[in-house]
Design brief:
Elements: E1 12-15, E2 23-26, H1 28-32, H2 34-45, E3 55-59, H3 62-74, E4 77-83, E5 91-98, E6 101-108, E7 117-125, H4 129-140, E8 144-153, H5 159-165, E9 170-175
Parallel strand pairs: 3-4, 3-7, 7-8, 8-9
Antiparallel strand pairs: 1-2, 4-6, 5-6
């Protein structure tokens, strides 16, 4: 990959995936480049420098990659929020709406302790449905969300406005127009 100056330069667009009319923003090219991946993780952490963070919550599935790297960097625990039925043990669940239906995400019922400070992360913020569900799960467990960090925002879909209306601090590394 050519030398890049911003995280956005590392992200490729795949036209008509997974459906016609969708411009898929592929972060695997970012993850595959050590300089780009390091840049993204460092920039995602920057707004929260000096903040107490006890746990990093990563949203299924690319949020696991980002969340694991951020948790490692901070020397804190990582908590996955997964699709229904993917976690063993006792979980709590939250239903949310998709453009084409509904889905459910879950977290272990003992993953976050009351009062723990939590950073929620994922690769892309679109409508905000998955992030909203993850936030609700953390709050139900008594966690205090200090922020939500994403690599990409698709502003036309309104996810950032939805999360900010919930009182969330939202940090974004880059934006793409369209779907």
């Amino acid at each position: 990959m050519p030398k890049s100056n911003s995280v956005k330069d590392y992200i490729r667009t795949i036209v008509d995936f997974p459906h016609e009319g969708i411009m898929f923003r592929d972060v695997t090219t970012l993850f595959a480049d050590p300089r780009g991946f390091r840049m993204a993780i460092d920039q995602m952490l920057h707004p929260y420098a000096g903040e107490r963070i006890d746990k990093v919550v990563g949203l299924e599935a690319r949020g696991f990659i980002i969340g694991g790297a951020i948790a490692h960097q901070l020397s804190v625990g990582f908590v996955p929020v997964r699709k229904k039925g993917k976690l063993p043990g006792t979980t709590i669940s939250e239903e949310y709406k998709l453009e084409y239906g509904e889905a459910i995400v879950e977290v272990h019922d003992d993953a976050i302790q009351p009062g723990e400070k939590v950073l929620v992360v994922d690769d892309l913020l679109a409508t905000g449905g998955t992030a909203e569900a993850g936030i609700k799960l953390v709050e139900r467990l008594g966690g205090e969300i200090i922020g939500c960090a994403f690599i990409i925002d698709l502003p036309e879909l309104g996810g950032r406005k939805k999360l900010e209306a919930m009182g969330m601090d939202v940090s974004i590394l880059c934006e793409f127009e369209g779907l």
